[in-house]
Predict the structure.
Amino acid sequence: MNSKKLKTMITLPYQSAFDMLDRLEQQFSTVAGIPSAEILEDQDLYIIRLELPGADKESIDIKATDRTLIVTANRKIIDDPKKVTKVVNEFRYESWKRMFTFSNNLDRDKLEANYKDGILEIKANKTEAHTSVTVNVND
């Protein structure tokens, strides 16, 4: 076998079908770009946790309606002062958005949020539904 053919074989991106499947799995996991979340619930409270690795605290925005919570955040590109070539880059520099709908109304005045070690934790108290009102008819 000549050296040119050997070099081509060595530089192929996939050495086996298993390597190719592993690489595809990595690509699919980064394509979604949706932060992972978990929601905990007790009688009075929802706790929502999101993984937002590398997001700037100032970029996190939380909006709430009666039964919906919308969380957006940004991860900015990290500028490297050295001139280097990226060999592998699986980091995602983008905006994230998640929307959650709950079966109980949220007390929007008592929402709390903390961000530490790439985890955003939101505590949302439940409240009684006040979606209907009584209107008096005047003479």
In short: Residues 33-79+90-130 form a domain with the Immunoglobulin-like fold (CATH 2.60.40.790). Helices lie at 3-10, 17-31.
